[in-house]
Amino acid sequence: MAEKNSFEAPRGMRDFYPADMAWRNKVFDAFRAAGEAAGFQPYDACVVESYELLARKAGEEVGEQIYHFQDKSERHLALRAEMTPTLARMVAKRQKELSFPIKWTTIAQCFRYERMTKGRKREHYQWNLDILGSDSVLAEVEVIGAAIDALKRMGLETGDFKVRVSSRKYLSQLLEKSGIAPEFHPQVFLALDKRGKMPDGEIAAMLRDGGLSQADVDATFAIMDVKSYEDSPELKELFALAEVAGFADSLVFDISVIRGLSYYTGIVFECFDAKGEFRAIFGGGRYDNLLTAIGGDKIPAVGLGFGDVVITEILKEKFGEAPAAQKDVTIVGFMTDAERDAALKVARSLRSGGGRVDLMLSAQKPKKFFARSGQGGYAFAVFIGPDDVAAGCAKMKNLATREETPICLTKN
Ligand code: HAM
After folding, report:
1. Which residue in 7, 36, 119, 374 has the fewest CB atoms around it within 10 Å?
2. Ligand 1 centroid, distance to 367 Cα (angstroms)
3. pLDDT tens, 41-73?
C-alpha cells in the first residue's frame, strides 16, 4: 500500500484553526480600535521586498534571519522581517506629496528565521504604529499611549505590564562622558542589547574585539547601573507628559533597554509582562535617520511594533478560556427535504435583515438538530418541520431563555 503523505506546517509557521482565530481577532480588534482612537491611518504593503532594502548592518540579529530567494528573473527578493524599511520606502517615494506629520498603522505579517523559543515563531503578525515628521516627544507619548490603550482593550490592567524606557541619545552622552568616542557607540549599543541573552564575559570580549580598551569596557558596564534620567531632557519630558496622558504608572526608566535594531536614534522602549515571564510584548523608539539611509530626505520618526504571539500567550494565561465565538447566530434546520426551501427562505430573510444565520445543509431529526444548536454559541434556533410549512409559521427559539416567538414562512 502506498504510504500516506502527512504534511505539517513548516517549523515556526502558523495555522489558525477557528479557536485560534477567535484569539487572533480579539487581539487584532484591539489593535485596530486603539489605532483608530488615536487617529492613526491604516496602510498596507507587499510582503515580498527587494533583499537590498531589507539587508542589515552587520551585528543586527534580524539580518541573519531574513528569508530570501531569487525569483525566475534572478531578482534577489526577501520576505519582510519587519515593516519599518517598507514604511520608509513608501514614505520616501511620496515625501513631496505627503503632509507631515503622518500617523500610520498596519498589522503586518512578518517572517524571521528565529531560533524557536517561547513567544518567538518564524512567522508573526506585528501591529505597527509610526509617526513621521515630528520631533516632539509628544509623538513618543502618542504611540506608547495607543499601545497601552490596546492592552487595556484586551482586558489587561496597569499592574499586568510595564513599559521600560531609555534613550540612545542619553546613553551616547554617558558613553562620551566616559571617554568612549561616538564612532564606537553603534557597536556598543548592539553588544549591550545582548545582555541577558549572552554572558557578560562574551559581551566584554565583543567590545574589546571592536577596539575598546578594558577600561572602556568597565566604564560601559558601569553605565548600565545608572538609575537616574535627570540629565536627559527628553526622558524628563517623556515622563512628565506620560503623567498628563495618564499612563506614567506604566513607565519605568531602564538604561539597559537598547533595542537590537541599529536605526534607533533617541528614546527607545520595550513593554514586558509584570512578572517578567515572557519576551517583549512590544518595542519601538525614535529613528530620525532611516529615510536618509534609503535615499529619502531626513525626517524625524518614531514608532513601535507589537507582535501577536507574546500577547496571545499572556491573554491565554490570564483568561484561560477562548474568547466567545460569534454572537447572536441563529441556527436554521429542516426535518425533511420538503422543508428545505422554506428553511433557505428563512435564512435569506433573516440575513437580509442583518441577522447572522447558520443554515444546516441537510435534513435532520429534531433531536440531532437541537443537540447541535446547544453547542457552538448559537443564540436562536429555527427548526422547520412539515407541520410548520402547512401552518405557514415556524418558531424561533431563544436558546438561553427557551422563549419561542412565531416567525412567518413566506410563500415565495
Ligand atoms: P522588534 O522589537 O524587532 O521591532 O519587533 C517588535 C515586536 O514584534 C516584538 O516586541 C515582538 O512582540 C514581535 N516579534 C518580533 N519578532 C518576533 C517573532 N519572531 N515571533 C513573534 N513575535 C515577534 C521591530 O520590528 C521594529 N520594526 C518596530 C518598530 C516600528 N520600530 C519603529 N517602528
Report:
1. 7
2. 50
3. 999 999 999 999 998 776 788 889 999 999 999
What is the residue extent of each domain of the chain? 18-319, 329-408
Nearest Cα residue to atom 30 of ligand 1 = 304
Task: Provide the 10 A C-beta neighbour count for residue 297.
Answer: 10
> Which is the closest atom of ligand 1 to the Cα of 82?
25
Q: Ligand 1: residues whose CB is within 6 Å?
A: 82-84, 112, 114, 120-121, 124, 126, 128, 130, 261, 280-284, 303-307, 309-310
Residue 397: partners with Cβ closer than 8 Å, 6 or more residues away: 380, 381, 382, 383, 403, 404
Q: Which residues contact 136 (CB under 8 A, 6 or more apart)?
A: none
CA-nearest residue for atom 26, ligand 1, is 305
Domain 18-319 top-level CATH class: alpha beta
Q: Residue of the nearest CA to atom 28 in ligand 1?
A: 305
Q: Which residues pair with 381 in a beta bridge?
A: 331, 397
Q: Please give the CATH number for the structural domain made up of 329-408.
A: 3.40.50.800
| Contact indicator for 85, 75 with CB cutoff of 8 Å | no
Q: Is 161 in a helix, a strand, or coil?
A: strand
Q: What is the pTM of this model?
A: 0.93
Average pLDDT score over residue span 85-112: 97
Cell numbers describing residue 53: 532594502
Half-sphere exposure (CA, 13 Å, Cβ side) for 362? 2
Provide the 10 A C-beta neighbour count for residue 348. Answer: 13
Closest residue by CA, ligand 1 atom 9: 282
